[in-house]
């Protein structure tokens, strides 16, 4: 053996090797040149294009545009939101096996055998296209298509194809085959705005992807290559042929039987698409949800429309439908002007939670980010602001509904002499009378005494926008510079309805992203008023509905509320005209709080409210909506704190009430406070309703004697400079003291001038905010209590004659 091996080596070294060198050597240089000529240019081109290759970003594959969904309070779908791409991501487990197989045979049969690039498919496509003289067959794998759709631009260039192959290789290294197929099934376009198999199933078959059959799977599998051409809606014949081709390929690869294919091919094609339009139901509510997501929760428009969010809201579907029904009914509106609709808006809140149950953005509201009057309107609230700026802070400061205030012409400085709606003055009235009959002068008088900054601070705590508002006396009558929306007014009143606890109004209750992560919703909750003060306000507002300016809002259950009317501004344009600019009604039951606004979008000589007040159409709309919302609920009473007692319908306990001063014969007819006209509307809808079906509790107890108190979630501090408000019978006034106080008040003469300390003029209560403001705001004063007057009789008389009850 060793001998033979040595002989072979000797033969190679001595005979063959020299001969081979002689034959090969002449061809080495030509072969090298040929190699360089054939392969070096492509390698250089490849290197050139790859130097600008895009960085592989795995997150871009997951950040696909996805359709978002909005649900009502019961978890029922309201609408879908999407941008230009309607996409609903699904997991690979949700996709039927027949569809997965059909996609693979139609687009990438060797998907499980390559690493992103299929050289065999490239060669096959090359020879097929040469024979056909065109580009009838492609060779892109599913991974390459994913790279093209998710990362690259759609341009058809050599550079993009090189980048596509490079990225496909990177994707294959990063993800499993199932993950790649799942991403592809969610990314690919199927026509008619549908991206991904779930949106495609809903668009063409109106069903979930999990429920499609073999025929539907074959149709979808054949569409990604040319979605428009193979659309069953636009080209039924081509779509049918393509479906048959896919079914045939499945037979060839042993995936289905001949009989299954025959039955599938015989099924009819869809005749119409089910497209999620940009229009959506309940547009005012949906628009506000979008507004809340972007302004409060930090989402961008792109994230809302393309982020695959599941947004759960507080919308009560039946209540929302009723709001839209009322806004579309002419029965709740006066005749329109020649060129504008009389508009209206409303907001309904569940005060216990702050949940927004319904919104009305206006008449003929078409959605898609329209001007939402329910949340975006900025109008002066008129007398509907009195409980917020004046009376609630006064109750918190220690005043009592039966405390007595002057009602006579008073100059508060700078020529500011507010008048009552009917130009009638009663001499003295209780706070309850001032609230119920919406009398202006006592409201301004009390506002000055509690301190305007106290009222402004309380309004801010209850959600009213006070930026840019100076503490002028005109705020007592709703004379705001920038105005408020119905939603803000409803939120503010809800704090009184909720026993003094302010819950930030919110529509969104849960947000779940497309990966199942939930974003916590944490609205602001704060105590802004004591339980007793809140109850006192509710009790007075009940009086306003029972026998004051808000009788039109009466229902067969307890209702508290306040009207508000804003006159036409005293400018040249409206000279010799009698009418109003805005009309409001804001009120609540033990369950819901509602604010209604009525007016014109553009007020001018031809477009203004004629004999329309807060107590007319707005109150009627309030009644109609809440009656419907509560029709299936038992009648409840407003819970009364244990510290408060009633006697013959009047409070005793917190501070004894002085005797009610007669109105000196002045009329107490229901009319709005800050209107030029006291004439009631003759329209049947606008007139005061009969009280035959109204709820009148017994005279000894208007509410339930519940001692339960809501939790103090937040600050319990009282407004600045308030008087002590502890509830202690030992500090209550005796009957003799109350009588003495009444006599003292009766002896206080009408005050001719309450000029402010700075001598600067104060804005008029009945006109829009003037551009020339006082140089200084009204002075802040310490809020007095009834006991202050008893303790210093001479001071009461002195201050009364000098023009104020300042300490």
Describe what is shown at a glance.
The chain is an alpha+beta fold and 807 residues long.
Structure in words:
The protein is α+β, with helices and mostly antiparallel strands and 807 residues long. The protein folds into two domains: 84-265, Biosynthetic peptidoglycan transglycosylase-like (Penicillin binding protein transpeptidase fold), CATH 1.10.3810; 355-802, DD-peptidase/beta-lactamase superfamily (Beta-lactamase, 3-Layer(aba) Sandwich), CATH 3.40.710.10. The strands form six sheets. Strands 2-1-5-11-12 form a five-stranded mixed β-sheet. A five-stranded antiparallel β-sheet has the order 7-6-16-15-14, with helices on both faces. Strands 3-4 form a two-stranded parallel ribbon. Helix 5 (142-150) packs across helix 6, helix 9 (214-221) packs across helix 11 and helix 16 (386-396) crosses helix 21. The longest helix is centred in the first third of the chain and has 49 residues, at 2-50. It is elongated, with a radius of gyration of 39 Å.
